[in-house]
Structures are given as C-alpha cells and as structure tokens.
Specification:
The protein is rod-shaped, with a radius of gyration of 28 Å. The chain has one domain. Helices cover 90% and strands 0% of the residues. By secondary structure, it is an all-alpha fold. The chain has 2 helices and no strands.
C-alpha cells in the first residue's frame, strides 16, 4: 500500500533531470542549514569575546585603583 504512494516519487527521480533537481534542492537546503548554524555560532563567539574583554578591562581598572601610589 505504501509503495503505491511512493511510486510517483520514484518515477520522477528515475530520469536524470529529476535526480539533478532533487540534488540541487537538497544541496541548497544543506547550505542554508550550515550557514545559519555558522552565523549562530559566530554570534555566540562574538558575545563571549566582548564579555571577556569587558572582564579584563574591569580587572585592569580595579587593580589600578587599588595599587599603592608612590610620589
């Protein structure tokens, strides 16, 4: 019963043009997924980098205020 529903899909993919179209669609979707994941990770890394810089700046200001002043 299921094979009757899938028969048109297999028939379309049997010819070369159908296979090429299927591959193009699959590759396009794969590229979209990969680039969206890469953009998300890039934003995370940028946020972590800025946070680390702010922490270092605060520590530098804190140590500068607490250091003994020599005249």
């Amino acid at each position: 019963m299921i094979s009757l529903y899938l028969a048109p899909v297999f028939f379309i993919c049997m010819n070369r043009k159908g296979i090429e179209q299927s591959l193009v669609i699959l590759l396009f979707l794969l590229v979209l997924v990969v680039f969206s994941l890469a953009e998300r990770d890039s934003k995370k890394l940028d946020r972590l980098y800025r946070t680390a810089q702010l922490i270092q700046q605060k520590e530098a200001v804190h140590t500068a205020h607490n250091s003994p002043v020599s005249y």
